[in-house]
From TrEMBL:
The protein, known as: acireductone dioxygenase (Fe(2+)-requiring)
Phylogenetic placement of the source organism: Eukaryota, Metazoa, Chordata, Craniata, Vertebrata
UniProt keyword Ion transport, yes or no: no
PANTHER family: ACIREDUCTONE DIOXYGENASE (PTHR23418)
Membrane topology qualifier: Peripheral membrane protein
Compartment(s) of residence: Cell membrane; Nucleus
Organism, scientific name: Platysteira castanea
Length: 179
């Protein structure tokens, strides 16, 4: 089951948990109010999983691939890890389904504080277009994930500040409406 918490201010190893002391947990409901959608699926049977098939149909996720993030599997590994960890947003939703391994997605809350979401095998997350976020491996240094898109994939990340994009403005309106 996914776990989330507010991060400490440490600038040390990005792959460490970075929990505040005491821990300040974040619920799935709090994530939902940020537009973050979480699902738990059967990663052992992702190729034939009827739940995944139904999600793809219902959400119109027509394109997918699988990426492995590990020093022996990903070209330009160290550069990619740094790029993934730069705070950015996308103009489309970001959908990731963890098939093996584990890692962290960090998202900003409505007060601009970092929330760390620990993802492991079987976890699927949808980050809404316009949310500032970043990704890093955890201390296991390995994840295999399915990436899903509506239509053709768009890989463009817009590093912060990117507040003038319509996707960001629409996201900020969503947050205001949730308040």
């Amino acid at each position: 089951m996914v776990e989330a918490w507010y991060m400490d201010e440490s600038q040390e190893d990005q792959r460490a948990p970075h929990r505040q002391r005491p821990n300040h947990a974040v619920s799935l409901e709090q994530l939902r109010r940020l537009g973050v959608v979480y699902r738990r699926l059967d990663a052992d049977n992702y190729e034939t999983d009827p739940c995944l098939k139904e999600i793809r149909r219902a959400e119109n996720y027509s394109w997918m691939d699988i990426v492995t993030i590990h020093k022996d599997k990903l070209p330009n590994y160290e550069e990619k890890i740094k790029t993934f960890y730069e705070e950015h947003l996308h103009l489309d939703d970001e959908i990731r389904y963890i098939l093996e391994g584990s890692g962290y997605f960090d998202v900003r809350d409505k007060d601009d504080k970092w929330i760390r979401i620990s993802m492991e095998k079987g976890d699927m997350i949808t980050l809404p277009a316009g949310i500032y976020h970043r990704f890093t491996l955890d201390e296991n240094n390995y994840v295999k994930a399915m990436r899903l898109f509506v239509g053709e994939p768009v890989w463009t990340a817009y590093n912060r500040p990117a507040d003038d994009f319509p996707a960001r403005k629409q996201y900020m309106k969503f947050l205001a409406d949730e308040a």
